[in-house]
Amino acid sequence: MPLTCPLNENNVACLTFTHWRYSMLKRILGSLFWTVVLAVVGLWALSAISSPHPAAGPSMPLHPLVRINQLDPAQYASQQEYDTWAWAACSAAAMTEVINLYAQPTTYTIHDILAVERSVKEITPELGLLEDQGISLTVAHFGFQTDWGYGRSLDQVVAEANGGHPVIVGIPPRRTGDYPGGHLLVVVGGDPRTLFVADSSKLNRASFPRTVFAGLWSGFSAVLSKGGRQ
């Protein structure tokens, strides 16, 4: 039946009824619209929750290790100490970064770690770290054990870092013009293509392509733990 009636002064009731039917139709259509909208949103949310997502490698380091600048004078007890040691202190900087991660809220400076490294005679201003075992001898004074050597593959280094254990690694002298005297830095994570690092040098590199780093790496790695591995 059409929702109209003749427009004349005697059809007030008819007009009122027609208006009521229009109003009811608008309410019904409005209710149906929002019902459909809510149903679509609900189905979308359910699909987003239940749909499997492909696993992906980390896009950033997985733990909050704080990079330290070995050329920051505030890391040293005096200007003389800075002038003498800053350019040779990459090993002390790497150890400081890792120790600070585990020692929170205690925060050490390069000076603190360097003082011990010097006392065990494992560093000189000319050569930097003298022996690989210098790392384990130094951090032992702070209650840490060190699992170090040349037995880990790069995949294992990345797995350690992604598992929450940052890894100190070495680049030998003359392997690259970026670090002509050699360098130690910390691997903090990685994925199939990229190695994420904390680099205390002036270059402050945050990452390397894995293929590039594989050609620079000496094979040395050291993982610190407090009270044994978890």
The biggest beta sheet is recorded as: 6 strands, antiparallel
C-alpha end-to-end distance: 80 Å
What is the CATH third-level topology name of the largest domain?
Answer: Cathepsin B, Chain A
Counted up, domains total 2
Structural class, by secondary structure, is alpha+beta
Query: In one word, what is the shape?
Result: elongated
CATH architecture of the largest domain: Alpha-Beta Complex
What integer value in Å does the Rg equal? 33 Å
Strand content: 15-25%
* Number of helical regions: 7
Strand order of the largest sheet: 3-8-4-5-6-7
Count of DSSP E strands? 8
- Can you give the helix content as a percent range? 40-55%
Query: Regarding CATH, which class of the largest domain?
Result: Alpha Beta
* CATH superfamily label of the largest domain: Cysteine proteinases
Low-confidence stretches: 1-7, 48-61
Describe the structure.
The protein has 2 domains: 1-53, no CATH class; 73-226, Cathepsin B, Chain A (Alpha-Beta Complex). It is 40% helix and 16% strand. The protein has helices at residues 12-50, 79-85, 90-103, 110-119, 134-139, 154-162, 210-216, and strands spanning 123-124, 128-129, 144-149, 167-171, 183-190, 194-198, 207-209, 221-226. It has a 6-stranded antiparallel β-sheet with strand order 3-8-4-5-6-7, with helices on both faces. The protein has a two-stranded antiparallel sheet with strand order 1-2. The longest helix is centred in the first third of the chain and has 39 residues, at 12-50. The chain is elongated. The model is unreliable at 1-7 and 48-61 (pLDDT under 50).
